[in-house]
Specification:
The chain has 265 residues and is an alpha/beta fold. The protein has helices spanning 27-38, 40-47, 77-82, 99-108, 118-134, 152-158, 173-185, 189-198, 207-210, 213-227, 246-254, and strands at residues 18-23, 51-57, 73-74, 88-91, 112-115, 139-140, 168-169, 263-264. It is globular and about 60 Å long.
């Protein structure tokens, strides 16, 4: 949340809270909510104003969520992102729809938005950025690509005066784990994916990762930032790892190499 830049006006005091609406309260969303509730002093020190949860949009309000006030939850996402008392909307629901329309509604209502939805950004980033610019608000997505490094902000801000010629790297942890297990233990592809799922590193349906869709979406975002040209995920050449065999791993080893899935821009 420290990436959000809020342009205070005279009507805001340093003690007035920034009110945040969360779209989604799954594994990530619930942790974001708990961070806002439990790390107030740290947030004030970094942001300059306290954060307060205005509401949380979920599919089922009656589901128990430990440590979170049930009165915060609503199923009416559109109403939540349009509320006049909301300053920032954090989208944590994933997928294209209804996330796209909700983010557009938030931006048009004068709310800045934070999202990690790489699939949505890769498909509709130009539209969302245009809406943010038109309404004078911010759209941030640092966590959409290698959030722990980070890479989005340096490309977007720190290197704005430089000519970037290439961006290349490993951007998908699931495929990196699968290929590493195939290389170090001799597992075949199916065994490595099953282990990744067991450990929570791969989704029940790992298609987006192992077929390269996730990496392609991230490559589109990185290319858009690095080369100042809007790219969509479907414009990126994509090749997954489902065809990699133990023989391929062995052949690479003979060449003193390893096989990795790379995003190359």
């Amino acid at each position: 949340m420290s990436e959000v830049q809020v342009h205070d006006t005279a009507e805001h005091s340093s003690s007035e809270p920034l009110r945040v609406a969360l779209l989604g309260c799954g594994t990530v969303g619930s942790q974001v909510a708990r961070m806002i509730l439990t790390r107030g002093d740290d947030i004030i020190a970094r942001v300059g104003r306290p954060l307060e949860i205005a509401g949380i949009s979920v599919a089922h309000v009656d589901r128990p969520r430990q440590g979170l006030d049930s009165r915060l939850f609503t199923t009416d996402s559109a109403a939540l992102v349009s509320r006049p008392d909301v300053d920032i909307v954090v989208e944590l629901m994933g997928g294209i729809d209804p996330a796209r329309e909700l983010i557009l509604t938030a931006l048009r209502s004068g709310k800045s938005v934070v999202t990690a939805n790489k699939a949505l950004l890769a498909a509709h980033g130009e539209e969302l950025n245009a809406a943010a610019e038109h309404n004078g608000v911010d759209l941030y997505y640092e966590a959409a690509v290698a959030g722990a490094i980070p890479i989005v902000r340096p490309l977007r801000e720190s290197l704005v005066g430089d000519q970037v010629r290439q961006v290349m790297g490993i951007v998908n942890g699931t495929t990196n784990y699968v290929l590493d297990q195939m290389t170090t233990t001799g597992m075949d592809f199916e065994q490595a994916v099953a282990q990744a799922q067991q450990k929570g590193y791969a989704e029940a349906d790992p298609t987006a990762d192992v077929e390269g869709y996730d990496a392609a979406a991230k490559a589109a975002l990185l290319a858009s930032l690095a080369f100042h040209t809007r790219m969509r995920g479907d414009q990126v050449y994509r090749e997954g790892i489902t065809h990699i065999t133990p023989d391929d791993i062995a052949s690479a080893k003979d060449l003193d190499c390893v096989i990795k899935l790379l995003a190359v821009c």
